[in-house]
């Protein structure tokens, strides 16, 4: 991300507790982040968010890449 000059932002609520398999979640987040970095053009932006959703949580990564088909 640094080599491509990507701007990164992370939005995590302070009071949200997630109970999950740590190694699986790390693997999923690493894959999503890696793809976001790979497909975001130089100088682009990546935003990662974790937010409450119903009785659980939702994690998303958005970037400036063109949509995938």
Q: In short, what is this structure?
A:
With 69 residues, the protein is of the alpha+beta class. The protein is built from one helix and three strands, in the order βαββ.
Question: How would you explain this protein's 3D organization?
Answer:
This protein is an alpha+beta fold and 69 residues long. It is built from one helix and three strands, in the order βαββ. The chain has one helix at 22-39, and strands at residues 7-11, 45-53, 56-63. The chain has a three-stranded mixed beta sheet, with helices on one face. Strand 1 (7-11), helix 1 (22-39) and strand 2 form a beta-alpha-beta unit. The longest helix has 18 residues, at 22-39. It is elongated. 6% of the residues are buried. The mean pLDDT is 92.
